[in-house]
Amino acid sequence: MDEKVKYINELFKYLTQNNDTKEYQTFFALLKNIKYNPSLLEYYGKEFVEHMIDLLPHIEDKYDQASLIETIIECLDIYTFGEKYLKETFDKYMLCIAEKAVNVKGMSACLIGFIQAGISEKEIIKKLEENLEKEHLISVLSRMYINYFANSVEAKSYLMKEVQEAYYIS
To answer: In Å, what is the CA distance from 134 to each residue of 73, 103, 122, 142, 163?
Structure first.
């Protein structure tokens, strides 16, 4: 591992030692930009992902949990997750969705990541239906439609027809 990467990962560990500090807040402010930068995620590597995995159980704030989960799922290209871990993380993310601690962009990207990792589309849609009002559900799914569902078998359902209409209108 590059010496610089080692120091940066040590810095991330330092920033997240105590959740009542400005350092902790700094880490999550950085994370918002890091999570959508694949080259940085790859640069920080497996040690960074493992730190996020270790950190997740200690995070109580749903917004921070959601941001951390979205980042972890963005790392699917550089890290392999077990089926049990994915299911547990998906369930935690659904709690974040229920608490409205996510935005549509982050949620749609993360849910597509869960699908690509092996969580079924049907399970995701079912959980979203349980946790979102219909208008918000259609908004999220239409965003996912742009990126994923257009080629999906699920596109034939009644709900997906509404999603497709919302997508075309937008």
So the answer is: 25, 16, 16, 12, 10
